[in-house]
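@channel sequence for tomorrow's demo:
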Amino acid sequence: MLDIIATALAALIGLAVVAMGATGMLKPQFFAGFGIPGTPEDDPVLNHWLTVKGGRDVGTGLMLLVATLLGTTALAGWVMLAAAVMPVFDGLIVLRAKGPRAAAYGVHFATAAAMVLISVLLLLA
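structure tokens (generated this afternoon):
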């Protein structure tokens, strides 16, 4: 039963990351409120950077889905744990840019914590 719950949670994370990345690629302004202050939403350089971030998120989500759906729970757990590094660094970027702590902790670090928890569940399953 633990394996079914952990796999479902991992697949949901993978789908959410793909959806977030696709949204960011199609509408880069989606990411503008995630923690970098003082950046105008119509800045073309920012929008190009955010599109790259969206592409990274799509790739990450797809890797999580492939590992979750085609691999063992142990493989999915290790991949999820490795991928949890990305939202940690996203949160550190927000803090370094003097962005809102709520975005750093409530979005990025909370995502990383959820991914670590799901990793543990997958590894125990």
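heads up for whoever presents: Residues 44-70 form the longest helix (27 residues).
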